[in-house]
C-alpha cells in the first residue's frame, strides 16, 4: 500500500517538476517581455502623468482562509492609492503548495530564469533561513521601504533584513475563567498549577503544531541564557536535559495521564468540551474562535513572563524579481498603521510594526497579551527538539 | 511454428504496456527507496537504518503496536464480516433487508469525517459517555488509545470485506447445499464441508486487503491513536516530514512493504497451488 503511494509521489513529483520547469520557461519568456514593456510604460506614465497599464506584481502567499481574506481586503486599499501598481494575488492553501512555491523560485534561479515570475512571497521563518542559505532574498532597507523603521530592529536583525515580519502571533495560556481564578504568570507557576490540578492541562504534540512546540521550547530554554533562543548551535542540546526531565515528570499530571492531542486545534477542542481547564494556544486562534462563538465566552488568555515564544509571518522579495520598485511600494503600504490596523482587526494577529506606532485603541486591546512576547529562532534545532520529545517524553 | 511465434510476439505486445506501467510506478520506486534506506548518516551504504528499526526502543514498540492493531483488526473484521455475509446469504426477512441496504454506508463517508465522528461519539465527553453517565457508568478510554484505532479500522473495513465475502457466498449454488441436506448433512457439516471451502479463496483475498489497508493506515491512527507507541504509518510521516530523515522513513516503508509481501507470498502460493491442482 505504501509502496504504491510512494510510487505515485515520485511520479507526481516528476510530473510536477517537469510542469513547473515548462511553466517557468514559457511564463518567463512572456513576463520578461511584458516586464520590459510595463516598466518603460510606467516610467513614461510617471513622466507624462497620464494613464497607462500599471506594473503587475505576482504575490504568492500561503495560509488558512483568514490569510486569504486579509489580502483580499488589503489589496484593493493599496491599489486605490497606487493606480500604477496592480497586485496579482496567488493564493496557495496551506499544507500542500508552500514547498513547491519555494522550489519554483529556487529552480528559476538555478535555470537562469529570474525569479520564476514571483515578485513577493509569504511564509514562515524556516523559509527565510532556507532562502538565506540559497541566496534567494533581496536585502531590504528603510531607504526603499521607509516604514521598516517602525519594525522592531531586533526582529529584522534575526532575519538579516531579508524579510518583512508583517504580522505575528503569540502563544499564550488560554483558560476557562470559571474554573481558574488566578492564572499562573510564570512558567514555574504553570508547572505548579499542573501538578495541583491533575489532568486539567494539555499541550499538543509539538511536532504537529506551534502552540505545543512553544510550550516545549519555552520549558527547555527556561534556565538557559537569554540569547540561547537566537542560536542554532548544536552544542546547546546537552543543556536541554533539565527541561526534558521536567516535561517527563509532568506527563502523568497532564490530560489523560500523558495524552498530547494532535495539532493546535486538538487542545482547543479539549478546552471547548471542558475536558481541560488550561492550554497553551495561539492568541489569534483563541480570539478568532471566541469571536465566532466556537470557544466558550468564559475563555480568557494570559501571557506568562518571560513569554512563550511566538513568531511573525514574513514577506520575502525574490532577489531576481524585476519589479522591485512596485513591490517596495506595496510593502511600505503593508507596514503602514492603516493596513496594520486592518490586519489586527480581521486576523486578530499582533501588528508587525511596534505597538507604539499603532492607534491608541489597538494599543489598549493588546494590554496583558503582548507583553513578554518572545521570538525564538533556533533553526534546525527544532527538529532535534521534536525528536528528543518523541523518544524522551511521549514514549516514556 | 511461425504462427506460434507470431502469437508469442502479440502476447508480449499486450503485456508490455502494463508491465512498463507497473515497473515505473511500483517496481522502480521500491528499488529506489530500498537503495535509499541503505544509506547511513555519513553517506555510505550499510544496514544501520534497519538496525535502528529493531534496536531503538520506541521504534520496536511501534512495530509491535502496529502488528497488534493489524492482527486484532483483521480477526475481528473477518469474523464480523463473515458472520454478516453468511447471515445475509442464508436468511431472509426485514432485518436482512435492512442490513443489506445499509451496511455499505460507511464506504461513502470520507475517512477524516468518519474519524471525527468517532471522536465525538467515543471521546471522553462524547455522546456515548454522556449517555452512560445517565446510568451511572463511565466509559473506558477509547480515543487516544489502541481501542480507538481498532474501532476505526472496523468501521473502515467491515463494509468492503462483507461485500467481498457476500459475492463469494452468492456464488455457491443452492442446489449443492440442498443436495447435501437431502443426504442428511447437518448445518455445521454443510458449513465446514461446503460453504467454507467454496469461499476460502475470497476469504484469503479479504485477509490480504484488510491486512494491507490496516498496516498502512494513517488518518485514523494519527487522529485517534496515542502519542507513543504509534502505528508505522504515523511514525513514517513523523520521521519523514518532522525529523526530515528520508533514509530512515524509507527503511520503515520498506519494512512495511516486506510485511505486506509476506502475506502476498502466502496468497500467491495458494493461488498457484490451485492452478496446478487443476487437470
Q: How would you classify the helix and strand content of chain A by structural class?
A: alpha/beta
CA gyration radius of chain B, whole angstroms: 24 Å
Which CATH architecture of chain B?
Orthogonal Bundle
Q: What is the overall pLDDT average of chain A?
A: 81
Instruction: Characterize the overall form of chain B.
Output: flat
Instruction: Give the CATH level 1 class of the largest domain in chain A.
Output: Alpha Beta
Helix and strand element order of chain B: HHHHHHHHHHHH
Beta-strand share of residues of chain A: 5-15%
pLDDT < 50 stretches of chain B: none
Instruction: Give the second-level CATH assignment, the architecture of the largest domain in chain A.
Output: 3-Layer(aba) Sandwich
* Secondary structure tally, helices of chain A: 14
Got a strand count of chain A?
A: 10
Q: What is the CATH superfamily of chain B?
A: MetI-like
State the end-to-end distance of chain B: 26 Å
| Count of runs of 4 or more consecutive helical residues of chain B | 12
User: How would a crystallographer describe the biggest sheet of chain B?
Assistant: none
Outline of chain A: globular
For the sheet with most strands of chain A, the description reads: 7 strands, mixed
Please identify the top-level CATH class of chain B: Mainly Alpha
